[in-house]
């Protein structure tokens, strides 16, 4: 999860690691600040947030065609260049969170 002291991406978009946290918060109907220990495992227990963000960071004018799927807090998370999808494995519901450009 990013902190207020971390710089934003060059074009102001939300990095995928933050988009995951925001999508889970939206899915659960809680504030994004509530997605933290001890109630939730740190995101780095499922994926290296910096490596994930770097994977989707591309040169200006290009778009990454990468797709990353991971499990976090009982959800299946699908990360693409245009957003994050949270699939609730128990209820078969999903929430998508677009990465703002």
TrEMBL record:
Domain Halobacterial output, by residue range, is 14-86
Q: Which Pfam families match?
A: HalOD1
- What is the top-level taxon of the source organism? Archaea
- Which InterPro entries does the record match to this protein? HalOD1 (IPR040624)
| Protein's name according to its UniProt entry | Halobacterial output domain-containing protein
